[in-house]
Amino acid sequence: MAIIYHEKSRIFHLTNDYISYIIYVMENDQLENLYYGRRVHDREDFSHLHQLSWRLQMSLVQPDPSNLSMHFVRQEYPFYGTGDYRSPAGEIRLANGSRVSDFKFRTYAIFPGKPGLPGLPATYAESEDEAETLEITLTDEVSGTDMVLSYTLFRDYPVITRHTRFTQTGDEPVMLERALSASVEFLDMDYEMLQLSGAWARERHVYTRRLERGLQGIQGLAGTTGGAEQNPFIALMRPGTTEKTGEVYGFSLVYSGNHLEQVEVSTFDMTRVLLGINPRNFSWKLCRGETFTTPEAVLVYSDQGLGGMSRTYHDLYRTRLVRGEWRDKARPILLNNWEGTYFDFTEEKLLAMAKKARELGAELFVLDDGWFGKRNNDWAGLGDWFCNLTKIPSGIDGLSEKMEEIGIKFGLWVELEMVNKDSDLYRAHPDWMIQAPGRYHCQGRHQHVLDFSRQEVVDCIHDMIAKILSTSKISYVKWDMNRYMTASFSPALPADRQGEMMHRYILGVYSLYERLIGEFPHILFESCASGGGRFDPGMLYYAPQAWTSDDTDASERCRIQYGTSYVYPLSMMGAHVSAVPNHQLGRTTPLSTRGNVAMFGTFGYELDVLAMTEEESAVVKEQIIRMKKYREMIQLGSDFYRLLDPFKGNETGWICVAKDRKSALALFCQTLNRVNDSWIRFRLDGLDADVCYRVRYSIGEETREYTAWGDELVNIGIPIDRADLNTQGGDFASILYELCAE
Ligand code: GLA
Predict the structure, then answer these.
(1) Which of 106, 226, 343, 698 would suit a FRET pair with 404, their CA atoms being 20 to 30 Å apart?
(2) pLDDT at residue 66, as a whole number
(3) pLDDT of the residue at 227
């Protein structure tokens, strides 16, 4: 790994065993990207890659002999107003109203390690030799603004992280009207763009499209990473790219607020990728001495197809974004009472459920919504973070003691950013909710969003929840966020700072998380937003796991978890077995499939265990035993390979292969059953060709075993008998293959 600066040619070369990223300081002192992709040899001078020829309609910033026009170069961080007519990464409004800026190279620093981003989530290096950082400082002299472009290269990954910092040194304040995290440009447009899009209960479905000239992209404007609709991630890949082959560039934003991922193809077929905080409804006033730091963008390069890209994100995010003691710990198997009781429970019922869950082998009981204030339905109670003693006479502290006596850990649901109008908090502070003056009080799920851009609001919520967490035995918290934001306005901010509100809100959320994980380091946080509406890397920095979707139907989960796996590790994906007919779809799937699919995540149950038959209880017991055997490997010690794409066919297939490739766990799951149909060969991936594996699987009551070499399993595959799929339930049948080196 090295970040080299060739002083004479003014070339920066960031390179490790996998990638090269080459930046050129042009003669006008602006920065050009000469190359980003698979590693190339270093040399003194790459400046011959700087190509320009005279074209009509050029706005020359450097006339003869170079004919330099910013419209035709691949810039590291473009601005509008110096002859480039594409979308900029940054935009600054000066006190005189001008939006022209011209940032010129001033200095640079190269140092070992990776500094944190103040108040923001970010990947980290555990030691100084794991990563190296380059910071290039540019200055716009007219406004007196410094801009630092920060790049970190990881030694062990094909990864570069980027963020940008602006510092005002001039006397007059400036307005940042656009401050994206990164811009990356490519020479041609022969790419497909992949995105993870959806809605509530069908999050992160996979969509691809061919790049076209002009603008394309995705954005979130709902305040929660854009809700379930657009995940803050895109990938560009060469046409024909598969799971195993082809070049892919991943762009992932470590942020939980409004975001933009935009691709622009110019007249000359050059491709510009921009990502960062959505400029809509954003501005930031920068006074002398103040600094604004953008969120981090994580750039992953893969020449091993989409699978290669995903495994890089998985390893990096699991080990260098997640923090705290839960990072390296297998996650507890839980029972969550939500789908089992909704708001309708008593203390006795909860204790009976917990007792049964304990008997089945579960380790954690999660009390979901409905335990606080006057929360008997979703019209009241949010904001009142104290126990509803009518429902739970022992209080949360007493209940947690009783859980401990049962021998099960205890966890609690909260939705700290919200308030119902029917709550003590609202009655005391009606001005704490987000509302634009004179406008209709827009609500969603009968609730309103608290103004987390205000310190006193965050402090008050902190004090309420910290009291509960410190007086009760709580080892897990599910932090929900169940509505989108709109009508953003904060009475605490002056008119020229209203554009800061949405970002300040997210900083407030991050600060509360930071405080709570600092005070209660043993607590496992799970983030949630109406299911997977805030499933983003930013959250992962605070909460090691997230509720993937409110859709608990096993077949739908195949698609949701498959799509989610493009970026996010299995240790992040909350996956529960629920009752049938499924509450979201009315569909009935086999219990074996529900268990098999949920195993590939952080496993649990979300149903009324007391209503289960003896036969079902016996199956659940076995599922829990199996999960305990494999969870360490699945969640912490394996590589994940997608095998059969449910967005393209009737089957889902995937496999977790232990890092030492001595064991593996593969899932085959079909959507609808088919009669008198073709043969199936289920081809695996990631196995060691020279290892002979014992393959074990169950069909109905029968357990079967055989042995096969890794190369056979990868190249020939496992033959699947359609009669076995009938035995496994027909529609939505699945088979779980356990592989172990002989
Ligand atoms: C959201 C969550 C669910 C559940 C409910 C409770 O919808 O996604 O898992 O916690 O809220 O109101």
Answers:
(1) 343
(2) 82
(3) 65
Q: Give residues with Cβ within 8 angstroms of 467, minimum separation 6.
A: none
In contact, 399 and 392? CB cutoff 8 Å: yes
Q: Please give the structure tokens belonging to residue 466.
A: 């910290």
User: Distance, CA 480 to ligand 1 centroid (Å)?
Assistant: 7
CA-nearest residue for atom 6, ligand 1, is: 369
- Where would I find the beta strands (DSSP E) of 309-403? 334-336, 364-367
* Interatomic CA distance for residues 458 and 451, integer angstroms: 8
Q: What is residue 333's predicted lDDT score, i.e. its pLDDT?
A: 98
Q: Measured from the CB, is residue 574 less than 6 Å from ligand 1?
A: no
Q: Are 575 and 557 contacting, i.e. CB atoms less than 8 angstroms apart? A: yes
- What confidence score (pLDDT) does residue 550 get? 98
Report the nearest atom of ligand 1 relative to the CA of 550: 8
| Confidence (pTM) | 0.98
pLDDT tens digits for range 685-725? 999 999 999 999 999 999 999 999 999 999 999 999 999 99
Cα 492 to Cα 208: distance, rounded to the nearest angstrom: 43
- Coil, strand or helix at 575: strand
**Residue with tokens 């008119």, as numbered in its chain:** 495
**56/72 Cα distance (integer angstroms):** 12
Strand blocks (E) in 579-710: 602-606, 638-644, 651-658, 663-670, 680-682, 692-699, 702-709
**Three-state SS at 273:** strand
| Residue found under tokens 């942020």 | 255
